[in-house]
Amino acid sequence: xxxxxxxxxxxxxxxxxxxxxxxxxxxxxxxxxxxxxxxxxxxxxxxxxxxxxxxxxxxxxxxxxxxxxxxxxxxxxxxxxxxxxxxxxxxxxxxxxxxxxxxxxxxxxxxxxxxxxxxxxxxxxxxxxxxxxxxxxxxxxxxxxxxxxxxxxx
Length: 154
Hints:
Layout: E1 7-10, H1 16-26, H2 33-39, E2 46-53, E3 56-66, E4 69-77, H3 86-100, E5 105-111, H4 115-123, E6 127-136, E7 139-147
Parallel strand pairs: 4-5
Antiparallel strand pairs: 1-2, 2-3, 3-4, 5-7, 6-7
């Protein structure tokens, strides 16, 4: 039996229970179901993606297009699937979609203590540009920016 490759699809309301499970286990101040539902509008300015792996939601990424800039809001991979390249795959896809929508720059905030995420973002060309004091309840955020460079398919 061969393994099925992970697939990246648009976020759909019926996937919210699995998404919320990942959200709640990934962040100390998680989004609520109502927050997700309020943001899941098809208006061309939101990119909400889900990574499906072995028939389950393994992760998700959300972000917003603002003119020619993209802002990454959240990216999370379920605990059991971390360190397998899935976050890299999801980040590349959301940046590629933003590029196709005309974005040439991306920004994000990340907890200053989240070294694995910071290293992932640096691998994609993100660089620290500022600190936002107490952005996350009692923790500072590192603000990072990057040019968006599309990956050419082989």
